[in-house]
Amino acid sequence: MKKRIIVLGCTGSIGRNALEVVRAYPERLEVVGLSAHTRDRELLAAAREFGVERLALTGKRGGGVPYEGEEGLLHLIEETEADIVVNGIAGTRGLLPSLKALETGKDLALANKESLVVAGELLLETATRNGRHILPVDSEHAAIFSLLRNVPPDAVKALYLTASGGALRDIPLSRLEEITPEEALRHPTWEMGPKITIDSATLANKGLEVIEAAVLFGVPPESVRVVIHPQSVVHGLILLRDGSWHAQMSTPDMRLPIQQALFHPEVPPQAPAPLLLEEGLDLSFRPVDGRRYPMLGLAYQALASQGKRIAFNAANEEAVRAFLERRISFPRIAEVVESVLAREWPSPRGGISPILALDAEVRRVTEGILKERSDHAS
Ligand SMILES: NC(=O)C1=CN([C@@H]2O[C@H](COP(=O)(O)OP(=O)(O)OC[C@H]3O[C@@H](n4cnc5c(N)ncnc54)[C@H](OP(=O)(O)O)[C@@H]3O)[C@@H](O)[C@H]2O)C=CC1
Ligand SMILES: CC(=O)[C@@H](O)[C@H](O)COP(=O)(O)O
Ligand SMILES: [Mn+2]
User: Fold this and answer.
1) What local confidence, expressed as pLDDT, does residue 33 receive?
2) 33 burial via Cβ count (<10 Å: 0-12, 13-18, 19+)
3) What is the ipTM of this complex?
4) Separation of CA 111 and ligand 1 centre (Å)
5) In the predicted model, is pLDDT for residue 63 greater than 90?
6) Are 333 and 342 in contact (CB under 8 A)?
7) Which ligand number lies closest to the CA of residue 59?
8) Which of 53, 113, 312, 313 has the fewest other C-beta atoms within 10 Å?
9) In sequence order, what E strands does the chain have?
10) Which GO terms describe its biological process (predicted)?
11) Ligand 2 pocket mutation pick from 114, 200, 231 by most atoms within 8 angstroms of CB
């Protein structure tokens, strides 16, 4: 029987890669639901190609798509019989769809790391209660997830996430003030959406991933570590107590972690982009420079509580938006997040509503700080 898949954010980088995986395995995988936010023509083209009728468009109305708006997307997830939901929505708006997928008895192939940062405990509890799995699609977590399956849990000393260093890795620190969004969006190894690409340049992406790993794998924050690895070939490593390293490596291509999640626990039969060591390969690793990447230290601070995690995530999302809209300069992103994080953010109690209320409050505070600091509005 074919595995039935809903692809959320099918017009984005993760969504398009997920559809590529389905194209590669027509006898094993079937798309039964699709969502997009604004790109309705691409959504309809995918629907025609895969013969899908359950479609949601969240960011526009009136185009003849059966499920409209955020509420419509949640109804689509609820009303569509499926085995697994690929969540490739960008940002915190992916949280409610993640929760709905698990509540309605589907596995969750999760690229939307913001879901876990903001409400990881709630998602894990919901998955357990419904007997479902959260399968990480984020490349580092997919790597560590597969490495951990092969060792006894008490043998693991630390988890290592690799970071490319982003588009500005080799730019002199003195130039960061004048960096344009176009420069910061030139990722050296991955083709991804704009928000995560800016997060790669500040290392907020790795900060979110440290939180994602601590929550998902249930390990203390100090055992999740980050190293700069410019080639993005080694995605994740685990260090065992006996001093041995286990690493997972592949060509940087998101079809691999996506197909691993879709075939779990089976190992997929084909390599989407083989890595040929016979052709030669140089790999390098170096420590993170805290002066260049203050966001990583802020993410570790945020690990102290769920309230701070929500604050870090929401403040970052708003600050990145302001940078992309040219309302603040690149170094202000970290400064704004630091100011927000310095306030008191008590952890929400009692389900999803207090989480969403705190997220909204952080955004209100961040917007106030952004107004004060908008330093080069054109
Ligand atoms: N790209 C990658 O390789 C990786 C991405 N991730 C994570 O996956 C997620 C998606 O990233 P990526 O694919 O790069 O992002 P993109 O910006 O390329 O795509 C985002 C997708 O989400 C949709 N979308 C945007 N806003 C909303 C909203 N408010 N409600 C519902 N849908 C929305 C977009 O629709 P439309 O285009 O129609 O407007 C689009 O389909 C992020 O959480 C990211 O951190 C993790 C690891 C790797
Ligand atoms: C592909 C993937 O998983 C991204 O999250 C990637 O890690 C981003 O690249 P950086 O290593 O630059 O953050
Ligand atoms: Mn990643």
Assistant:
1) 99
2) buried
3) 0.99
4) 9
5) no
6) no
7) 1
8) 53
9) 3-8, 29-36, 55-57, 67-68, 84-87, 107-110, 134-136, 156-163, 224-228, 234-240, 245-249
10) isopentenyl diphosphate biosynthetic process, methylerythritol 4-phosphate pathway involved in terpenoid biosynthetic process
11) 200
pLDDT mean over 12-27: 98
304-377, CATH topology level? Rna Polymerase Sigma Factor; Chain: A (1.10.1740)
Architecture of domain 3-136: 3-Layer(aba) Sandwich (3.40)
Nearest to residue 33, comparing CAs of 72, 60, 90, 62? Answer: 72
pLDDT, tens digit, 9 for 90 and up, residues 291-314: 999 999 999 999 999 999 999 999
User: Do the annotations mark residue 13 as ligand-binding?
Assistant: yes
Burial class, 312, CB count within 10 angstroms (exposed 0-12 / middle 13-18 / buried 19+)? buried
Determine the residue of 14, 110, 116, 140 to mutate for testing ligand 2's pocket, defined as the one with the most ligand atoms within 8 A of the Cβ atom: 140
Q: What is the DSSP letter of 2?
A: P
CA 205/CA 345 separation, integer angstroms: 21
Res 378 pLDDT > 60:
no
Q: Which residues line ligand 1 (CB under 6 A)?
A: 9-15, 36-39, 58-59, 88-90, 93-94, 111-114, 138, 190, 192-193, 196, 254
Q: How many CA atoms lie within 13 A of 230 on its CB side?
A: 10
Looking at the chain, the number of H-run helices and the number of E-run strands are 14, 11
Does 193 appear as a known binding residue? yes
Residues of the chain with CATH 1.10.1740.10: 304-377
Question: Cα(64)–Cα(37) distance, rounded to whole angstroms?
Answer: 14
Nearest CA to ligand 1 atom 14: 193
The three state secondary structure string of 330-353 is: HHHHHHHHHHHHCCCCCCCCCCHH
> Distance between CA 367 and CA 278 in Å, rounded?
52
| Ligand 1 atom with minimal separation from the 208 CA | 45
Is 200 assigned a ligand-binding role in the annotation? yes
Tokens linked to 74: 């949640």
Alpha-carbon gap, residue 249 to 231, rounded angstroms: 11
SS3 144: helix
Distance CA 319, CA 335 (A): 9
> Would you give the distance in Å from CA 103 to the centre of its chain?
20
Residue 82 to residue 90: CA distance in whole angstroms:
22
Domain with CATH 3.40.50.720 in the chain: 3-136
